[in-house]
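Could you please consider the sequence and fold appended to this message?
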Amino acid sequence: MVFLLIFLIMLHLLTLTMLFIATLQKSWWIWDDLEITDLWYNCFHDNATDTWLCAATNESDWLQSVQALMVLSVVFSSISFLVFLGHLFIMSKGGLFYLIGFCQAFAGLTTFAACLIFTFHRKEILSKSRDLSKGSFGYCFILAWLCVPLLLISGFLYVHLRKKE
C-alpha cells in the first residue's frame, strides 16, 4: 500500500507539472520554425535579434473555452493534491479518498474537453488566413492529451485507495 501511495503522489505531481507546462508554454500550434501559437500568445522569431516577439492572441469564443477549461483543470488538480495532503494527516483509518479522486477525474475531463475543442475548432481559434495544413500541433497540445488518461487513471486509483495506519 505504501508503494501505491508513493506511486500516486508521483503520478499526481507528474500530471500537475504536465498540466502547468501545457497551459502556460508557447507551443500549441506551430506554423513553421519562425511562428508559434499557444493559448495566450502568437509569437514570431526575429532573426535580427534572435528573440521571440509575442502578441496577444485574437480572442474567440472557442479559444476562451479552451483557456478556461485548461485553467480549471490546473485548479482542480492542484486543489485535489492539497486536499490529499491534508487527508493524509486528518483522515481516520480506513477512510477513502473520494473527493480527491473525483477532482482528478474532473480535471481529466476538462482537459479532454479543451483538447477536443482545440482539435475540432482550430480554424476558428487560430483565425488565420493562412492554410492550416502548413502548421502542426505543438508539444504542449500533445502534453495536454497525455494528461487526460493519466488524470483519469489517478482519479480512479484515488477513489479505490484506503488510508491505513
